[in-house]
Hints:
Helix content is 71%, strand content 2%. By secondary structure, it is mostly helical. It has a two-stranded antiparallel ribbon with strand order 1-2. It is globular and about 55 Å long. The chain starts with a helix and ends with a helix.
Amino acid sequence: MKIDKVKKRDRERTKSKILRAVGEVIEQHGTEKVGVNLIARTAGVNKVLIYRYFESVDGLMEQYVKSGEYTSTTSTEYIDNIPQLAPEERGKVLTGLMHTFMNDLRERKATRDLLRWEIGTGKSMLSEARNQVALRILSKIGDLPHYNDTSALVTFLTAGIYYMTISTDYREKMIDVDLHSDDGWKRIEKVIERIIVDVRS
């Protein structure tokens, strides 16, 4: 029994190393260079383990999107820790989630690069995985008390966050919002909060 626990812990540690390596490869070499050999070399593991744990590069990328390496809000741990919420608590939790998601994207170049690559190539191989994660999160939070289409609201906010965070890599300002300063992003955080708090059906 103890040996099984050690094996499981070692397996999870190796999977985490491989998932971290995906981000490193994207950031250092670009999304188009993502492949089994380079990821295995970066992670310091035998490439056989990638096939054993993830079956394929597509399977690995899908798990990457669902892991805390992509954004902390997509991790199983984050989602599992969302408690059952009373209707009046949902807006605050959703606001916090959107703020965390936005700040994760600001800090994670690999995630921005992956999104930019998908948009630029027209390939949305990971969109279904993202949709599954988002729907799971929304099912835990529930609809806002005064608005019954929370998924459309989150889609709108997410699209804006994607565009603005990706923009930080090639522009300093959007209108007069400084994309390279915390003060600029605090302004966006306030807007997100107001939208979520004030939205009505």
